[in-house]
Write a structure and sequence with these properties.
4 iron, 4 sulfur cluster binding; 12 strands; tRNA binding; 12 helices; Methyltransferase_A; methyltransferase; DNA polymerase, domain 1; 2 domains; binds iron/sulfur cluster; rRNA (adenine(2503)-C2-)-methyltransferase activity
């Protein structure tokens, strides 16, 4: 199979041009066609010599994301289920905010992390996506937004999969997204969310970027976290917190802790108190996420008043906390639900 052209950073494209006897500015022209003009094939790249276009076509493929389904919510959220070349399916979501359009991308087909409240992990991990397959989700969304003159203004890596278990592809994707000669997405408008893969948190701290880091914490202590997230047995709570403290000290950047509230499991006032004590003196922010009901699990939603009480306890203890605005509730926008339904229909 030919490699995907979206897998390559600008520097790698320039290097390819050099190795193939072309001036390196051809690499910049190609990058411009891919991300500024958003060409859908090499034949459209009219300022490249015909022989070069043919050579590119022989050696590289475009990622084709086949739209299996698309759901549009009343609130403007659009959720895609895309088919890949090998018949796997992935989800991508466009969220409309008053400050712009945000894309939630997927980094793996399925996930092996096993968070008990998540539909993405039900069938396990199938495979990693390549950088180009992650890039293609944003380019495809941008092509759709081009029709109305809108642009992708922020990216969250919070779709299916654990980005830090597909680290190199995720970093190549990020380098392509932030390049000023391409889509030029502001680094501070990008968030990578991890379940707490400790060695990768240390690695990411050394990357010298302004990209935001979010950690899915979901519990205030080791025992409860292990019940909700089996990954906690690999990377225990205290090791994750230590890596977070290192990251903050090294980068001077605030961390966001994602906390999915599950009725009567981790949403009691004592959990909020304990969490506030753990996060005391850390430069951080807590994002409270009321869980969506996953039919395969018997979790129930936290009552509205209890969500506000959880937030109040954190804030009283000087921990900045927000409640995530729910989007696309009417179209199964939670991670993995659409794909899970699709897989189920395939096996019937
Ligand atoms: S929440 Fe994220 S890391 Fe956890 S199982 Fe789902 S996709 Fe994987």
């Amino acid at each position: 199979m030919k490699p995907f052209i979206y897998d390559y950073t600008l520097e790698q494209l320039q290097q390819w041009m050099k190795e193939n006897g072309e001036p390196s500015f051809r690499g910049a022209q190609l990058f411009d066609w891919l991300y500024v003009k958003r060409a859908k094939g090499f034949k459209d790249m009219t300022n490249l010599p015909k022989a070069l276009r043919e050579k590119l076509d022989e050696q590289f493929a475009f990622v084709t994301l086949q739209e299996i389904t698309k759901f549009e919510s009343k609130d403007g959220t659009v959720k895609f289920l895309f088919g890949l070349h090998d018949n796997h399916a992935i989800e991508t979501v466009i969220m409309r905010h008053n400050y712009g359009n945000s894309i939630c991308v997927t980094t793996q087909v399925g996930c092996r992390i096993g968070c008990t409240f998540c539909a993405s992990t039900l069938g396990g991990l199938k495979r990693n996506l390549t950088a180009g397959e992650i890039v293609a989700q944003v380019v495809t969304a941008q092509q759709m937004l081009d029709a109305t003159g809108e642009r992708v203004s922020s990216i969250v890596i919070m779709g299916s999969g654990e980005p830090f278990e597909n680290y190199d592809a995720t970093m190549a994707f990020l380098r392509i997204m932030i390049h000023e000669k391409g889509l030029n997405i502001g680094q501070r408008h990008i968030t990578v969310s991890t379940s707490g893969i400790v060695p990768s948190i240390y690695k990411f701290a050394e990357e010298n970027t302004q990209i935001n880091l979010a950690i899915s914490i979901h519990a205030p202590n080791d025992a409860l976290r292990s019940k909700l997230m089996p990954v906690n047995r690999r990377f225990p709570f205290e090791e994750v917190m230590e890596a977070c403290r290192y990251y903050i000290a090294k980068t001077g950047r605030r961390i966001t802790f994602e906390y999915a509230l599950i009725g009567s499991v981790n949403d009691r006032p004592e959990h909020a108190e304990e969490l506030a004590d753990v996060l005391k003196d850390m430069m951080c922010h807590v994002n409270l996420i009321p869980v969506n009901h996953v039919p395969e699990r018997d979790y129930v939603r936290t009552p509205r008043e209890d969500i506000f009480e959880f937030q109040r306890i954190l804030e009283r203890k000087k921990i900045n906390a927000t409640i995530r605005r729910e989007q696309g509730h009417d179209i199964a926008a939670a991670c993995g639900q659409l794909r899970a339904k699709h897989m189920e229909s395939q096996t019937r």
